[in-house]
Design brief:
Layout: H1 12-21, E1 27-29, H2 32-41, E2 48-50, H3 63-73
Parallel strand pairs: 1-2
């Protein structure tokens, strides 16, 4: 689980450079914990979206529902 991670580090310098110099349309997170952590470091980011966790432990959606959701977000 993400909440059990002991050390969470972001390459702040590289991420800031990417956000500044690229036309990023959206940033996807696979957990609310990671989204909250990321946005606390980069509060000006308004293009983030938390996706349903692909983990089998995320039981609110079936595997098929997750697959369909991800297919809608990431069409071929």
């Amino acid at each position: 689980m993400d909440s059990n991670l002991e050390v969470i580090e972001y390459n702040d310098k590289a991420i800031k450079e990417i956000l500044k110099n690229r036309a990023i349309k959206n940033i996807f997170f696979t957990s609310k914990f990671v989204e909250k952590s990321f946005l606390s470091l980069f509060p000006l980011v308004t293009i983030g979206e938390s996706l349903p966790s692909p983990s089998p432990r995320y039981a609110r959606m079936s595997l098929l529902e997750k697959i369909r959701y991800y297919q809608l977000k990431f069409p071929k």
